[in-house]
Each structure stands twice: as structure tokens, then as C-alpha cells.
Amino acid sequence: MRKRERNLYLSNVAVEEALGIYFRQLEGILQNLPVEKVQVIEALGRVTAYPVFAKLSSPNHNAAAMDGIAVRAKVTFGASEANPKRLKRNLDFIYVDTGDPIKEPYDAVIMIEDVVEIDEETVEIIKAASPWQDIRPIGEDIVAHEMIVPARHTLRPVDIGALLSGGITEIEVYKKPRVGIMPTGSEIIEPGEKMEEGKIIESNSRVFEGLVKEYGGEPNRYSPVDDDYDLLQERLTAAVEENDIIIINAGSSSGTEDYTVKLIREMGEVLIHGIAVRPGKPAILGIIKEKPVIGIPGYPVSAYFVFETFAKPLIRKYVGQEIPPRPKIEAVVSKRIVSSLKHKEYVRVKLGMVGNKLIATPLNRGAGATMSLVRADGVLIIPQNSEGVEAGERVSVELLKDMEEIRNTIVSIGSHDLILDIIGNLMHRQPGNYHLSSAHAGSLGGIMALKRGEAHMAPVHLLDEMTGEYNVPFLRRYLPDMEVALIKGVKRIQGFIIPKGNPKNIKGFEDLVREDIQFVNRQRGAGTRMLTDYELKRRGIDVARIWGYEREMTTHMAVAAAVASGSADAGVGVLSAAKALDLDFIPIGDEDYDFAVPMQYLKEEMIEIFIKVLQSQEFKEILEEMGGYKLEHTGEIALVRRG
Amino acid sequence: MRKRERNLYLSNVAVEEALGIYFRQLEGILQNLPVEKVQVIEALGRVTAYPVFAKLSSPNHNAAAMDGIAVRAKVTFGASEANPKRLKRNLDFIYVDTGDPIKEPYDAVIMIEDVVEIDEETVEIIKAASPWQDIRPIGEDIVAHEMIVPARHTLRPVDIGALLSGGITEIEVYKKPRVGIMPTGSEIIEPGEKMEEGKIIESNSRVFEGLVKEYGGEPNRYSPVDDDYDLLQERLTAAVEENDIIIINAGSSSGTEDYTVKLIREMGEVLIHGIAVRPGKPAILGIIKEKPVIGIPGYPVSAYFVFETFAKPLIRKYVGQEIPPRPKIEAVVSKRIVSSLKHKEYVRVKLGMVGNKLIATPLNRGAGATMSLVRADGVLIIPQNSEGVEAGERVSVELLKDMEEIRNTIVSIGSHDLILDIIGNLMHRQPGNYHLSSAHAGSLGGIMALKRGEAHMAPVHLLDEMTGEYNVPFLRRYLPDMEVALIKGVKRIQGFIIPKGNPKNIKGFEDLVREDIQFVNRQRGAGTRMLTDYELKRRGIDVARIWGYEREMTTHMAVAAAVASGSADAGVGVLSAAKALDLDFIPIGDEDYDFAVPMQYLKEEMIEIFIKVLQSQEFKEILEEMGGYKLEHTGEIALVRRG
């Protein structure tokens, strides 16, 4: 029996332990970092290897600190308003501009505003000058031989200025480590290449390039290498020659074609394979010919965190710097997060300041959720040996964005619609620099978030089965003690999202029970789900008979994507989602998609800007172009009084 | 009578008003910012001009989320430990690696760990698969047509990754404004050129280059232009053609050769000349051919603040960004700062966390004090219409450094010595990333700072006239209620600093009263001043007879610099200062230069590292090479008990 070869056995070493082992092993290199000479005028952002002492003083001569006249102080003694003194040019004084050298016999400057010009050769003064007044003495700013910057200092523009003023033109800095980035995998294609099924656009290496630059290294990206052992070996051999640090992307897991660990083991040493962290577990820390070689897993979020955890401190050490810890802030978690005792976990969160509470809402935790990195305001670290955090718990979050930006952000939790992106974008063009952050929790989820004081706004579209009225009954029912306003949004067309051409000839809800129809549903609490259930109930259809009823998606676009990929034959959603993926659409009816806002936030400037955008001509035009929406009473405010 | 032509009349417009006037005038340009297409892989740090929507979904196919086998879920139903199911390869299952596409008829993945391989063609499972388990559906990460990044977003590495994954290869970003930087002045020389009297090394333009880059513009520096009206006009005409924003450095004041304002007025329009800010008053805001032209004064600190105040927001607007306000923090001012009602003032401060108080100590406020920018941890802004702040007052400080770094800094206030720089530098090489910040206030000033709880440490060298003992008596006298330790430092040789060759034949204190001798003194409270006064008193010399006795410098190096420049014939100071400027030295005697530290800080890790450095072999070797010091009991700790 031939067994398929797999590296099934990953260890589960704690992050800190792995860092300790790896950096101890690299100590020899890290204590003898290469240094190079560069021109000071090109040294911005570089890190000094040694302290730098001034060669020249600045100013390098006694200099006039003002425009005026240089005089001998003794000659001016006794001058007063009652007894002005006249001075002769080139005998008693000379004219000087700021910065001009002051030399013997002159030892004071009188500013021009205090000088009365009598004729071309004569001036009059009415106040004596004290010796050395308004003269910048030699070395006032920088004295030769004083230290301008210490070692291990990252040079800023002002440092460059001071170094040049101190007569320094060349400077010794740590050499930028050359970081070889080797994307591998037969399934990857380069950006812009034709997309075919089963292919993935290679993007991790481009993220690494950017991060290497930001941390002070020099990225050296190679073309992607196919999953071919001999080829990989040849390329890795070259990369080890050509770089200081080598990053191999993907092939670090335990799949059949994951050669990386085998390669590193054969060519050098694998110190760690498998780290107690999520995302990022299959990382490899190795050394080949005394050079660090890091195997980074392929999922983009794993790739990012493994880079940040291991490659970043390594690059920073090469340029003589420790990593300053990211600024941290205390926040309240809006949802329960369950984590495993087995690993440390990095949870990306959106942050929002609601009232005086900073709320952290976890984003998609998947290792492949690139967009969770794009959208994250911070990272919540759940330590190994913790089972997670409860909703409402206070946690410490590493900030990825500026607190000012977070404070200027409307936290919207509730039903998702594409128009939220459009509104957010239009808000950016308004004064005040306000943002809209939207988390998708369904309409009811949004109302619950308002109840817990965790959102400024909940987008809702909830149909009351009894009255046929939208939204207001639900706000009365679920927020009985809260004064809340409903900002009228849009009328939205809901319908079946089906493949182009309707190949299975779906006409309505009755078709969903057919054996050949696979449905895709929305999550409980979503307005669309409630509409679906309402329509099914009305027709007396047993949901147990619908194939795929239990498959839940959290956005319209995810439903559309399931249909587009052929994994479902129908779902319920909005026209814009169907149009976006070029699918067909069978309308079911209009619904009211509105925004619930507690009264206390209604007068905040960012909410006012939000309303202004809703009412704008530009917003109207964009929606008309998109189709699927009607604007009626948009931007009007209805107060919700108790039932 | 021919009058020398001067621009005597500067206005005094408030900063905010000036910004308002200028940006209103530039509104036309700022609302039609040029946009360019760039490759996404080269777009790091660029700012999006429009929102960017995904072209492709990611993943672009349903994909295996694990290594394992793809199956039809229905076929697995009923499998259990009691009743395992056998599956046939290529009929019931296929092997898949993470990321492989999952296509009809397969609709679930079972991870390899849950699969028992029977032979090459057969596997056994003991658990049913649910439909769509361990499959990443198409669009799970990014759905085609969803917004990846909004407009006016600065692209980070993770954004680049998401854009590429979303099928975007080109992107429209705001064009980097080309910023022409024109240094002017007949007195300036380029770095590396031979220094001659009256010359100044041109460094401002290099600071501007760095700042322009940091803020997202493209610097375009010109060679320095002499103060020649026609030449300046020719060069400015070209610069206006070639750039989006033009900066003319110096020539913005009211001196005879300050042509800038005249030039801008003739070629375009001067909107503001003279701003109520210090440093930076003579700034010019002008427009030529619809392009902003900013005249920036020559003093480096003025130049920096005028750039930050006017050029920075302008550059940021060109790239579609507002400036986020600098992070601010509350601190206690350690010294009174008097400021004028007439202008806003930017005071550079050192910050230090002493106990639980954040202390702000003002640095040199001169417009020429480049080193105050290099050393600053923050900027304290004193508003126009304020007369300044009192010692002990709580103020808000804009941070220039990371708070973590500030927390890890020993705040040393007291007598200055070159060895402080050396110790600080050696501390950097120790673990823990600790810093030493030293403010020069003289020995007594340092003791007073300890008393007020504003420093961790005071370097002192105070001779008790009665006992001949150093330092301890003063700590007993001035800190009677404080438990304080004295860390023994070095024996330091004090003496006369005199010009090379001793041209005036100075032999001792008696010579200081000679008519041809100009003395330079240290400030009151400095140990060296007390030594000087002690020796003069002992000899019965009347200080009123010493020319220059009232001219006070605050450091040894400043005294040496005065002697080196010929503005003084003698001063008292340490050997190292004399050697640094190649001057002669007549020893007076040794003194004890020690470090007073309140007991409560003695056990802090950063103080322990400080002591470790004092005791190190490396420190000893450096001091031996410098000369002028003896090491006796260095690093030992003496407790000071009440007398």
C-alpha cells in the first residue's frame, strides 16, 4: 500500500516560546548586524548604528540675531530719550541682517526698529545696548563634539537638519535587511492574469512587500514557484544566497504538496513547525546557512499574523530596533467570542464610541477573511488558556486606527444593504471627516445592539405580520423604554435571486420544495428571513421540505454568490445583489429599509451629516442608476412613541 | 537722502485666520485635485480618489477549506463508529488540498484527520458530512462588486492584498503634489562645502524634503539661489511652472535683502505677510498663477513650524486627506513660561513620567535652536491672548514621541556633563529599551526639581564651603524631608578654559580683573558657578571688577564655545569641553560629580540599568580615553540621612 505523504504532525508551541527559541538561535547574526555608510541627505528613516557627534558648531560664528546695526556696546552707554546718541557708519556701526557675522570690534546688535536713520552715514539711538545683546553666540544651537543623535535612532526630517548643521554629511546606519519573498503554489496566478477555475490571485507576497518596507527592510519578491520539489529546492537555494531573511509563502501546512518543511529540514534546520496561534498555526521557523527562513501559511489572515508575529520583530532587530508595542485601549465586547484553550487567537474587531463606551465588535474570524483585516480598527488578543470572552466583558484591544477616527464613526449594527457603503462614501466628502462603520447582524440583531447601548444606529426592515406595518411595531415592542427615532430610508425591492435565464424555471415560493431545487437562506433575525418565513407560512409550506433551508448566509451578496457559484438554485434578497453578480431576479415586493436611532444621538453632528447625505441629490442619482430602490420620505424623521 | 529699502511692516494675523483666508483662496484648486492611475502593487501609501469595488469574488470558486477528501454529503449519511462507511476513490470521493475547487457532484469536505485510508482506492469514515461542511463558498471573503476601500483612503499593505484578491490591478489615486523647494541666500553653503566665516550650512530644504515625503508629496529641491533679485525672479518663474506648490526658504523677513515678499507681490499676490505665531512670525502666504507659494523664514525652528502649520495641511489636502490632530496628553509644566499676548507660541518640551505625574520641561525656545526639535518629546501650544503658564500648571501637550518611550525614560535635571550622553547611549545597548533625558538646570536647579517631584535624578557637584564636602550637605539642607540616595559618579577636573596657546597669559583667578580679559560665567545655581564664586571670595576678588562676570552660559560647552569664538578670553569648566573645541585648560581642582536619586526610584529597573552602566568596563574605557575624569567608587550608593 502506497501512503500519500503528508506532514500530519504539527507541534503547538506557544508564540512567546517560539520567539524565544528562534531569536536565541539567531543571536550570532543579531549581535553583528551589518552597517553601511549613507549620505545624510538620503538617510530619512534609517537607523543610526552609532551615536553621532557634531563636527562643526552652529552657528559657526557669532551672528546677528536681528536685522539692525552692529555696534560696540561701550560706545552706546549713556544713550537715552533725553540724550540720544548719534553713531557714524563704518566707524561706530555697520548695518547687519539676521545671521550676518559679528566681529571685532562689534559686540552688540541693535534691532532696526530701535534705530532712527538720520542720513546715509548717521543713525541715532535712544537706548544703550548691553554687551552681546541680540547676538547668537557661536555654538548656540549645536556645539562641536556634542551628541546630535544617539545610536539606534530612527532619523526624522529634523534630525537630518541638525546633522547637516553640525557638519555631518555621511552617517553609519544599519543595513536594510534584504527580505526574499517566495510565493509558491501551482494554483496561484499573478494579478491581471486570466482567472480560471481553481486559481487564486497571488496577493500575500504584495502584502509582505508593503510590510517589509514599512518596517525598514528591502523586499525582494520572486515570481511564484510551482509545487515542484526540485524547482522549489533550486529557487530556495538561490534565495538563501541572495537575501538576509527568506519568507516562503504557503506550503507550510500538512497537505500533500506542502514541501516547505521538508525542504528547510533538508537544506538546514526546522526549529519550530506549528504554533499555538490562530490564525497562523502551521507556521515554520527555520534556519538555512545561518539565515532565517520563515514558512508562512497561505490563508491571507494567517499570513498577515504570522508575518507580524515573527517576520516583523526579526526585520526590526536587523535595523537595530525593538518593536514598540501597539497602543492599547480598553473596550467592551459586543458579542460572546468562544476560543480554544489550545491557542492564542487574534480577533479582528470594529471599534466604535457609543455614548461613553468603546464597543468592540468581532469581525469574520476566518483565516481567509482578508476583508476582516481591511475593516479592522483593532485586534483583540485572546490568550492561550482562555476559553474566550463574554458579551459585555471589558477587554484590551490593540489599536490599528487612530482613536480620533474611531470617535468620528457612526456605529451601525443591523441589516446589511449595499447603500450603506454608498452613504459612507458620500459622508467622506462632507466636512467633519465622519465615517460609517456597519456590522451585519440582521434587523433584530441591530435592535438588540441599540438596547444594549452598543450602536448609534440600526438599519431595519421588519414586517409586522399582524399590521403589515414596517419597523415601528418592532421598535415599540423591543425598545419599550427607549426614546428612539426612525430615519426613513428607502423602499427596497426584495425577490428571488436565481441563475441567469432561470434554468430550473422557478416561479414562486411553491417551487422551493421541489427535489431538484437547492435553496440558500438568510440567518434568523434578518428582515429578509422574516419576510421569507412570513411568505412560506402564509402559503402553508413546511420548511422541513426545503432542501438548503438550514444553510444560512449573513448578507444579500453571500446569497447571490451562492447562487452564482451553482451551490444554490435560489435565495431571497435584493435586486442590487442579483444585478451585481449578473443573476436573474423575480420580485416579491417592496419593503421599508429604515434607520433606527436613539434620540440621544439624533443631534450629533455625524448623524446630521448622515441625514444630509440621505437627502442629497447625489444619493438619489446613484440609487436610480443602481435600480431596485425607491425614494419616498427619505431622510425624514419619525419619532417612535410607545404603543 | 537714500533710504535703505526694508519691508518694515509685517502684519500679525492669527494662525487660524491665515489658514482660513489662504485655503478659501485656493478652493478652486483644492476641489479639482488631479488624479492618476497607478498599479495596485505600487500603490502603497497612496490615497484613493474614488471608492474601489471588487471585480472578482474571492475565492472565485467553492474551495476546500481543509486538506482531506471531497464527498457527496448524501453518500455519507448514516456513517458512525458502529457503522463505518467505505468510500471509493473517484467514485465517492477525491483527495483535495486546502484551496482546491470543489465541483459537482461533490458538496462537502471531510478533513484528512477524520479519514482512515484502507488502500489506495478506499477510505473509511465514521461520521456523516453535512452539506457544504469545510467548503469556502465563492465570495466568502470578497464578493464581486462590493466596496473594498472607500475614497480618500490611504492604502496599507492589507488593502493592496484585498484589492488584488478582488481582481483590481490598477487604481485611481490623487496625484502626489510636486513641491518645489527653493533655498535662497548668499550666506548659505551646501553640506560638505568648505565652511567659511559668515556662512551657514543649508539644511532647512533637507528637512522640508523629508517632511514633504512623509506627508505624501514629491519634493523637488533646487540648488540654493543667491540674494539677487533678477536671479530670484528667473528661478521662481521656473519653479512656478514646474511645481504644484512652491516653498521659498528665507527672505521672508524684513531685512534689506529679503526679496521674497516683493517678488511674490510682483509675480502674483501676497495674501498674508506676518503671522501671530512664534517661532515663525515672518511667514508669507502667496499665490502665483493659481499656485500656492509659501515664504518660510530662515531660522530652522521657525522654518519647521511654518512648514507644519501651512505647508503640511496644504500637501495633505492635495492628496485628499485632512491632517489628523496629533495625539495630546496632559502634563504638568516644570517651569514658568512667559509668552506674549501678541502671538501663539509653540514651546518644545521634554516629557517624563515621574511617579505618576507627567512632567513637561520647556527646551530652548530660540528660533534657531534646531536641537530643541531633535530633543523634543512634545509641543506645548500657548494660545495667542495668553501670557504663558505657571510652574505646576496642567497643560495639554501634543506628543511627538511614543508614550511608551517616554515612560521608559529617566528624567535627569541638574548639572550638565558630556558623560550623560555617553551613559544614555550605553543604556540603549542594555535590555529594556530605557532612555536618559537630561535637562540642564544646574546642580541646585536639579535638587529643586527633585523636591517638586519633577525628576528621577539630579546630577550634582556642589562644594560646601564650610566642610569642603561635596553634595551630601546640600541634599540634607534642601531635601530635609526626603529619603534620597547619592549614586557616586566621577571625580571631575575643573579649570580655566582659555584659547589655544594662552595668548593673554592667564595664570589664575587674579588675572580675571585685568582690563584686557573678558570672562564668561556660568548661571547661578550651577556647581561650577559656586566653585568660581568660592574661589573668588577666598581670594577677596570683587566680582564687579570682572568684565563679563554677568554673561551667563548654561553649559560647559557653551562656555568653551564662547572662548573658541573669541567672544571671551576665559571661563571655568571641565577638561572635556576644552578638549572638544581644541582649547587650552588650566586645572583648578577635582570635584565630585554625583547623582542624587530619591529612594523611591532607586529600585526601578531603569535606575538599576543606569547604575550597571556606570559600573561597566566600557564606561570606564570611554572616560579614560576622553580624559578629565577619575573613577572612584563609581556606581556605589550612599544613603543620605538627615544631618
UniProtKB/TrEMBL annotation, chains A, B:
Its EC number is 2.10.1.1. One of its GO terms (molecular function) is metal ion binding. It is an enzyme of class 2 (transferase). SMART domains: MoCF_biosynth (SM00852). Keywords: Magnesium, Metal-binding, Molybdenum, Molybdenum cofactor biosynthesis, Transferase. The keyword Membrane does not apply. This is Molybdopterin molybdenumtransferase. It comes from Thermotalea metallivorans.
